[in-house]
## 1
Amino acid sequence: MLQQFQGKNSLLSSKAGLSGAVESFLKTYFAAHEGGLPTTGLYDRVMQEVERPLLQATLKAVMGNQKKAAEILGINRNTLRKKLTQLDIDLRDL
């Protein structure tokens, strides 16, 4: 399905898509350390930064329906609920 979307949206099919944006950000992020390295935990920080807007956008698209959101995301509804709690995402704010 993502491939279908990519065909309709040149943003995702070009280098300017999500992976391009992340790659560009990470290059800038590492360069800002001027030859040094960032502190440990980079993977978790990046995943949390991506996960929050992903969950919020999906829930907004399905008008807060957690069952549908979980199906679209390919995760269990209980996992979605746990992530919403961990990331302190309030459905009333969507």
## 2
Amino acid sequence: MAPAPAGEVVTVEALPAPFDATVALPGSKSITNRALICAGLAAGESTLDGALFADDTLAMVGCLRGLGIGVELDEAGARMTVSSPGLPAAAPASLFANQSGTTGRFILPVAALGATPVRVDGDAQLRRRPFAPLLDALVRLGVSVAAEGEPGHLPVVVTGPLRGGAVSVPGDLSSQFLSALLLAGPAMPEGIEIALSSPLVSASYVAMTAAVMTSFGAAALERRPGAGGALEVLKVPPGGYRPTRYRVEPDASAASYFFAAAAITKSRVVVEGLGRASLQGDVAFAGLLEQMGAEVVRSPEQIAVRGTGVLHGIDADLSDCSDTAPTLAVVAAFADSPSTLRGIGFIRHKESDRIGRPVTELRRAGIAAEELEDGMRIVPGAPVRTRLRTYDDHRLAMSLALLGLGGSGMEIENPGCVAKTFPDYFERLAELSSPR
């Protein structure tokens, strides 16, 4: 296996022997960006320990700085220190979210809290992703939204002030629209009340949002059944946040690649700092591997996965851990019977089409795979060594690499895209085959 993605292609070789490894993984991207928003809206100094340093979180840091919020970085110590006046500076600003969906969506309501225009833009990939439900909600809450490109997409200029109130949003495209409004809710003079007009996907991420918010002193999220066509109503009262020292959990999505590697190579891995009480829905991935035949041991401080040499096909609803779908599709290729992954139609609108693209690449590697309306079906087989495309999608690069580890090797194009959330992923993967 190449030690690092220095060029445009990295070669992942099959493991020479099973491994037994204990790994410490970087902090959760999802939690880091939520905590940065809360800290940015808390008057005073907050510290994030264990924070993730990657393209997506540095995009959030840049946007907060653009709004007049101070952020000091200690990458060696995995620490971010946020110094905030409590609200964004009352000055025009231009923010760039790079490829980060959480940054682009979470920063929009924060930028709209002030009465001065703020431009929000992103990389071409982020410009293609949908923003309309959030932008429409902001307009209904009294914010001026001026589109500079395709309606419902970045770039836009938002001008507040966003005072809050009641609004309806759909839940079936992305939970990030809901989380974005909730995160800014405590800083709105009227708070926020959100009625869901369609079923919520990735509900675990909304629970994560609420947990991080309360850690920074926000009032607890109120949830009640909807009326008049709404499925559910979520409410956050005004009251703001307080400065906090907060520890970010290791990234459960990152852990899924190592859990999968152990399951398909008859190996054992222990991930430290990620326990049964994790805020992240993606810890459910270990349970899915357990259903397929892996051995899983959980404690408050760690999760261990051991490949038993037997993997059975699975029929799984991944709507609450959708980021792990490409990884489970790869694991399914090594099972002894077909697998169906469902409940994830909305992931077609992520960094890439995470249903169509994995199916295409699995087929390229000789695995029979089929797109379904809301998921995919995988028929096990022996992966054929070839060159796989990643479509500039970090999760595809990291999951498809596992085909090489458990098969006869694989070439992965554009491996540098993993910098979005896990910059040294291929180096960490290479360590699994190092002598111990």
## 3
Amino acid sequence: MPTKFSGTDEEKNSLNSFICLMRASDTISGEIHTSLLEKNLTISQFGILETLFHIGPMCQKELGTKILKSTANITTVLDNLEKRDLVSRIRNEKDKRYITVELTELGRKLISEIFPQHVKKIESIFKILNCDQKKSLQEICKTLGKQF
């Protein structure tokens, strides 16, 4: 549903683009979130597990930056993952402020089991687009994101 705002054509076009982008994002996020809930994971928890799985151990601050979460939010997410024995936090002996986060064996097992299903889910969502459309979408999103 397009905007009912009665501004200039450029304003309406920008608002309609934003509305379409947000609706698509919300719909896709909802689909992904539903499949993660079956594994009792939030999108943020999955993001941490997936990042550590593919990149390896890293400091808590860098991990927050990678999954676009604030320091306060990342702490809460890590607390919950740690309670489930999916990650562990290791304080640096020389600088106690520096905390490295790594997957536990249980965390590695879980993410290695669910990541292939996650990829299949995303692939099924995006199959409606051809290769050129996917590349265009990537470029558009990069252009939008790089402006800030």
## 4
Amino acid sequence: MKGSKPLKLIFLKPVLIGFSALIFPGLGHLLLKKWLRSAVLAFAILLLFLFGLKMEGKLYILGSDQLIEIVLFIADFCNGIPYILAKYWGFGEGNLENQSFEYGTTYLAVAGLLNLLVAINAYDIAVGRKH
């Protein structure tokens, strides 16, 4: 067929957009040229993440046998590059003595879960299910 894209390329673009959205908040929508949506989502997710760090919340790592810690790691890891940088620079250790520790930990997890939803939204837009 003339003018049709190979099936591999049609499938690959949405997957790359969804994956890039997981790597950094708002990046998938930026690649889709949804500038305002990208900026708003990136701002909201990064603000939640920074508030969580400021409240001395804990960023979890993989290596526990407790289900809740594994779930929290997955939620935290969905923050992408901000998670990796925060762990590399020594943030997110958590301070149980801080009154806002639990709020901070929750903010960090919610930021990651929100980024996961945003990545799914970017994928849906890329495949044409949403606008």
